[in-house]
User: What shape does this take?
Amino acid sequence: MIEKIYTKILYLSKKKYAFALLLLVAFLESFIFPIPPDIFLIFLVLAHRNKAFYLAFFCTIFSVAGGILGYFIGSIFFDSLGQGILDYYNLNEKFSKFSENYEKFGNLIVAAGGFTPIPYKLITIFSGFVKIDFFEFTITSFFSRGARFFLIATLLYFFGKKIEELLIKKFGLISLILFLIILITYFIIKFLN
Assistant: This one.
């Protein structure tokens, strides 16, 4: 199954509409679509290394725009549309677990959802549902999604094909480790002050 998806994405990334497809996937993944844009971004950057940062920038913009829509789904349409999305992806249990500490650690949770393998769509919808500050949500999303996509673009720009397999198979783990290092550093600095 994964091999078929990988082959299909590789095929689509070579088409002339690949950039538009990347932007569509980046937008939709932020509130409904199950496939993250990372794999499309990887193949497009490999095909157009000189446009690596251009691709990462627009991937970030469209992902955050989709995240904003997810925020409004949670804020305005949670009972009808938002709940339907959670039911469809069977995310209700995860949704209720996040609710316990969301108010206190909302920005950290948004940053984690934007950078790590935590489903960003869950974070965007829930952020709207609990109505965390919209401006903070948007800024945190922009920096965390940007960090994720620019990390991919930077690694591929400098290392190209050598790092492709590692990114495809282990990016979730890499991003989680990096986020934990940042989080631990944050708490150490906070504790020392």
Summary: The chain has a mean pLDDT of 83.
